[in-house]
Specification:
Radius of gyration: 16 Å
Order of helices and strands: EHHHEEEEEHHEEE
Structural class: alpha+beta
Strand order of the largest sheet: 4-5-1-9
Oligomer: single chain
Number of helices: 5
Strand content: 25-35%
Number of strands: 9
């Protein structure tokens, strides 16, 4: 079963220690110039560790996240993964003070977007069936992002609205357990 966690950035940063991050992650975070974006990325990486620890039944301090770009082979960007655990997929998403993460057997992908997000015009061309229906367009967008993050393998996608966060979320992968 795929485990999904979602929270505000402030909640995560108040509870989890940034000292859990690897040196390469801290170096990458220092390069993010916008403080709110840096906080979102930090919170997503910390919450991902908690999610993986819960999924695998281990301590959060034992979780190591890897990230290497398949295009240039450089660390610090590309799809995150668990070194030595090819059977467990992980994914993260962050936007405007909120984060969502997923961990589960096989490939997984997650996306979230605020309910009040202004939608880019190109989305109307991507999803013409939702023209004139911003709520439907937003749902189609997060579903598509979750699919892409899972590797576009045709996995089932579940999407829902989290009223507490004020966001639409979607997860691609096995059945989700919140």
């Amino acid at each position: 079963m795929t485990r999904v966690l979602a929270a505000t950035t402030a909640e995560v940063l108040a509870e989890l220690d940034p000292g859990l991050l690897a040196d390469w992650e801290r170096r990458r975070l220092r390069r993010i110039r916008v403080p709110a974006r840096r906080a979102d990325v930090t919170a997503a990486r910390l919450l991902l560790r908690r999610c993986v620890a819960e999924q695998l039944g281990c301590l959060i301090a034992e979780v190591t996240i890897g990230q290497v770009c398949p295009e240039c082979d450089a660390p610090g960007h590309g799809r995150p993964y668990l070194p030595g655990r090819p059977d467990t997929g992980i994914s993260l998403s962050h936007a405007d003070g909120m984060v969502a993460v997923a961990a589960g057997p096989g490939p997984v992908g997650i996306d979230l977007e605020p309910l009040d997000r202004p939608l880019p015009r190109p989305l109307h061309r991507l999803f013409p069936q939702a023209t004139g229906d911003p709520a439907r367009l937003l749902r189609l967008w997060v579903r598509r992002e979750a699919e892409l993050k899972s590797g576009g393998t045709g996995l089932p996608v579940r999407e829902w609205t989290d009223r507490r966060l004020g966001a639409v979320l979607a997860v691609a992968g096995g059945p989700a357990a919140a």
